[in-house]
Design goal:
about 325 residues, alpha+beta, nine-stranded mixed sheet, six-stranded antiparallel sheet, about 25% helix, globular, binds 4'-deoxy-4'-aminopyridoxal-5'-phosphate
Length: about 325
């Protein structure tokens, strides 16, 4: 971690134990560093009444294990062990505010040649304090990137594979250089498919439209949460590919993601979306999500894993 971005929390999980972050080191010749041979998860931890709550840890574990399966990484860990590692790590770090957890599976092997078979894989995790990734008080000014989202036939889109994020990096770098906050990506056929690290929900003529999971999108856990919350509110959803012109005339465009949570677009390619304030669907999602995190929702218990900071009680 460079000094410029050095706000990582003091302890990491590395080499099958909790160690000071400075001891979690890999060789410059490691396969993962050379070829992007990793798959990862991004998870939020919320401090509520002094107790860290991890959001949908089971679902993140499942997606990470599915990623290993899709890519052919010879690695697996049970949910029970996964949860117990997070407990140890959070107890070691004792967060005082909301945070972000980054587990990833990587290959430390010093092996030349791109491949996934015949390598050894390990789990590592680090934590970063995180309040808001985007400022929720204003909408994002999005720009459509000239870099297209890769199709599943080139790189598995459901795997959250480290190397695949070259695509997101190219897109955000391009649009930020052009003065935008975030990138919208088109798929190979020109449909609007995703933001660089978030799924999208479009509201058009009052109807909610979401690109189907079978398109080039990541199967987003925040999006699945939104689908649950919308269905619970009896709001119908159409799962359809989204034309670029629909975005221009949308009532609302909402980005969903672990980092983004539910953030609305104020404009796309400098054309305003809505009136620059959160629309009714974004507001509903934010309110119900806040209830979820405050343990005031029927799914709170299922989706929040409370970690006791008192290690003697665990
Ligand atoms: N798409 C991409 C490409 C992402 O990186 C993310 C962030 N994980 C998402 C969508 C949103 O997924 P989730 O809600 O599971 O964080």
């Amino acid at each position: 971690m460079s000094k410029k971005h050095g706000n990582v929390m003091p302890f990491a999980y590395f080499g099958e134990k909790v160690v000071p972050h400075s001891e979690a080191q890999v060789s410059i010749a490691s396969h993962s560093l050379q070829y992007g041979t990793t798959c990862f998860a991004g998870i939020r931890g919320y401090m509520r009444d002094g107790v860290p709550q991890i959001f949908r840890l089971k679902d993140h574990h499942k997606r990470l294990m599915n990623a290993c399966k899709i890519l052919g990484f010879d690695f697996s860990i049970t949910y029970k062990s996964f949860e117990s590692i997070f407990t140890d790590l959070i107890q070691a770090n004792r967060p005082t505010g909301d945070f972000y957890l980054r587990p990833f599976v990587y290959s430390p092997d010093q092996a030349l040649g791109p491949r996934f078979d015949g390598l050894s894989y390990e789990l590592a995790i680090y934590l970063v304090p995180m309040q808001n990734y985007f400022d929720p008080s204003r909408g994002l000014n999005l720009g459509v990137s000239s870099w297209r989202k890769f199709p599943d036939s080139s790189i598995p889109t459901k795997a959250k594979a480290g190397g695949a994020y070259l695509n997101s990096s190219l897109a955000t770098t391009e649009v930020k250089a052009n003065g935008f906050d975030e990138a919208l990506l088109l798929d190979q056929e020109g449909y609007v498919v995703e933001a660089s690290v978030a799924n999208i929900i479009l509201v058009h003529h009052g109807e909610v439209i979401i690109p189907p999971v079978g398109s080039a999108v990541l199967d987003g856990i925040t999006l699945r949460t939104a689908v649950y919350l919308l269905r619970e509110a009896n709001i119908p959803i159409r799962f359809e590919r989204i034309d670029r012109s629909l975005v221009t005339t949308a009532d609302e465009l909402i980005l969903t993601g672990t980092a983004a949570q539910y953030i609305f677009a104020a404009s796309v390619d400098r054309r305003p979306i809505g009136d620059g304030t959160p629309g009714p669907i974004c507001t509903l999602l934010r309110e119900r999500f806040a209830d979820l995190l405050a343990s005031k929702h029927p799914m709170s218990q299922e989706w929040l894993t409370a970690i006791s900071l008192d290690s003697e009680l665990v």
